[in-house]
Design goal:
Length: about 150
C-alpha cells in the first residue's frame, strides 16, 4: 500500500466518522457514515437515514452516492469509505469492528463503477480505532449486473 492509499483511507474514514454523527437511526441505533472520493479530490458524505416505516430506511452509502449524482459526478467516483457502529446514549457510533456495504449498496456503488469505467476502492472501518479493510468493488460484487448490460455507458 502506498502513502497515497493511506492518506486517502485516513481522509475518507475521518469524513465518514464525522458524517455518522448526523445519522438518523433512532430505530436500529446503529450509525453509519460514508464518504465518497471523486477524481478532483473532493469528498461527498452521507449517513443512514431511517424511517418510522422501517423498510424505507436509506443506507449511508446510497445517500452519499445519490448526493454525488445530484452534483453530476456519479462517473467520477474513485473510492468510498464506510464506517459504522452501535450508538451510545448520546447518539455517537461506537466500536472498532469494520463495517462493509450491504448487498444493495454494493449494487448502487456498481452503478458508479460502471458509469466511470473504473473499479472502486472500498475502505471499511469501525466507528473508532485503527482496524481497516481495503476491498475492490469487483471483489465485493463479482459478476455484477449494471448499465453496461443494458448497453448504456
Ligand atoms: N446500513 C447502512 O447505512 N449501510 C450499510 O451498508 C449497512 C446498513 C444502515 C441501515 C440501518 O439504518 C442500519 O445501518 C442498521 O441496519
Amino acid at each position: 500500500m502506498t502513502d497515497d492509499d493511506i492518506a486517502i483511507r485516513d481522509r475518507l474514514i475521518a469524513a465518514a466518522r464525522e458524517a455518522a454523527l448526523q445519522a438518523h437511526a433512532p430505530y436500529s441505533r446503529f450509525g453509519v457514515g460514508a464518504a465518497v472520493l471523486l477524481t478532483d479530490g473532493s469528498v461527498v458524505t452521507g449517513t443512514n437515514f431511517e424511517n418510522a416505516s422501517y423498510g424505507l430506511s436509506l443506507c449511508a452509502e446510497t445517500v452519499a452516492l445519490a448526493t454525488t449524482n445530484a452534483q453530476g459526478r456519479l462517473r467520477d467516483v474513485v473510492a468510498i469509505g464506510v464506517i459504522g457502529g452501535a450508538m451510545d446514549a448520546a447518539g455517537k457510533p461506537t466500536g472498532t469492528k469494520p463495517v462493509g456495504p450491504c448487498g444493495r449498496c454494493r449494487q448502487v456503488i456498481n452503478e458508479a463503477a460502471q458509469l466511470g469505467k473504473r473499479d472502486i476502492v472500498v475502505w471499511c472501518a469501525g466507528a473508532e480505532g485503527d482496524a481497516y479493510e481495503r476491498h475492490l468493488l469487483s471483489a465485493l460484487l463479482p459478476h455484477a449486473f449494471g448499465p453496461g448490460d443494458l448497453g448504456i455507458d
